[in-house]
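note to self: dont lose this again. the chain is below, predicted strucutre after it. 153 aa total, dont forget to put it in the shared folder this time
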Amino acid sequence: MATSLIVNGKKLTVDADPATPLLWALRDHLGMTGTKFGCGMAQCGACTVHLESAAVRSCVIPLEAVANQRVTTIEGLSKDSSHPLQKVWISDNVAQCGYCQSGMLMAAAALLKSNPRPSDEDIDAQVSNICRCGTYPRVRAAIHKAASMARKA
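---
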């Protein structure tokens, strides 16, 4: 069965079982492998994407639940790594192994969109992604720096 959705601004159709998790529709059917599989239970956040601008864990959302909705993946955050978060992630070497970072970036981007001046507590509450390497202090500092850059732009 075909499901239409808007991914990174493009209307696309996915020919898959409607119960297929959005994560696998993105990776296996659309070739967007920036979104990662971590736990499959919406706990780790590696699969975070935006659904209608809200950060969601794509591993537990069935394809049928996102029909005709806007989905933004890490590939759609910017075309050239020009998003303030991407700039800081690169300049400040935030990632260590990097596996969780696309989900971290998507969670952080949703946070900054709704709260341009987040406190440490706001960041900890909204960016609840798990990082096996423990880069949380660098992530928090990068979010603050990107927020400052965005406010000055």
